[in-house]
Amino acid sequence: MARALDFYFDFSSPYGYIASTKIDALAGKHGREVIWRPILLGITFKRTGQAPLPSVPLKGDYSRHDFARSARYHGVPFRQPSVFPIPTQAPARAFHWVNERDADAAKALAHALYRAYFLDDVNISNPSDTIAIAEGLGHDADALRAALEDAALKDKVKLEVEAAIARGVFGSPFVFVDDEPFWGVDRLDQIERWLESGGF
Amino acid sequence: MARALDFYFDFSSPYGYIASTKIDALAGKHGREVIWRPILLGITFKRTGQAPLPSVPLKGDYSRHDFARSARYHGVPFRQPSVFPIPTQAPARAFHWVNERDADAAKALAHALYRAYFLDDVNISNPSDTIAIAEGLGHDADALRAALEDAALKDKVKLEVEAAIARGVFGSPFVFVDDEPFWGVDRLDQIERWLESGGF
Lengths: 200, 200
Description:
CATH topology of chain A: Glutaredoxin
CATH architecture of chain A: 3-Layer(aba) Sandwich
Number of helices of chain A: 10
Strand content of chain A: 5-15%
Order of helices and strands of chain A: EHHEHHHHHHHEEH
Number of strands of chain A: 4
Number of domains of chain A: 1
Largest sheet of chain A: 4 strands, mixed
Oligomer: homodimer
Largest interface: A-B, 32 and 32 residues
Structural class of chain A: alpha+beta
Helix content of chain A: 40-55%
Strand order of the largest sheet of chain A: 2-1-3-4
């Protein structure tokens, strides 16, 4: 089996959300699996001196417009969250907590968290909201609540982000096909051609 | 005749260069003309607090890789210039000087300047190089040399950049279809669908 793609994303990233609805099917068409890897853009932005899109003059206004238009272009339902962007420690930690036992269940949780934030305007930065969504998928709410405060899980998420940065990740979505890096939902076309032809 | 598209670009922008080889054909397929409008990213970046891509940690390395890969993806010949990025007052002023008399000749000059910079590694920030390229297309070298130092032409270019910023332009390429803004060569697909369907 060919090597799995690595899909890095932040739970507050509209372009990450759009890509999350496409990446498994795209990879699967070419016999590839996808490993999902939530990151924390707050940390990567500090490291690279970038600012969150909405705070950049001109670019911020454009981006809000482009989020919704790109979602329509890709046929993905989208509503601009009223609180945006948000810190995403709670959903990232919940993802990893589930992922340690079951990668498919973690992907299902990620889809549910993204839908909650980008369709139902649920602020998933609140641990209680993230926990409720996980509980709705059959996960143990009390165990997750305890895990979200567990130092080992916090460290694991931080280490994942540091490993991503060490690999060159600075935005969301960010995909590696073998060792080839692709940043942005607007690189899905290039990813597809790369998978078809093994490079170009 | 439907309204012309506005194509904003900086002569130092690899993505602007790639788009410059596509935009007229794309618009023409849908019965539209294109007005070319060189800008100075040095000014827009100061206004929005952005930094040139190569100077941003991680993003800079990725971008250099992506410039060449995106050029291959779009089938456009490309070589990374040894001096990059460059200030683009000289080519922008030369473009406007020609454009005041002949828009098609100005586009031909823009293509030649872009090819010189992104294929032949000619540093078009040097007025002498820009003038030599214009002369090769039949323009009067002495007249252009004088024009490049003309205060009125300098002011015109600055006013064009200010007008672009006032319209929301913050990067290159930046295209308006009617009043709809599209940033980046990776929005050509969306531009195409917008032209086909009058919006989506």
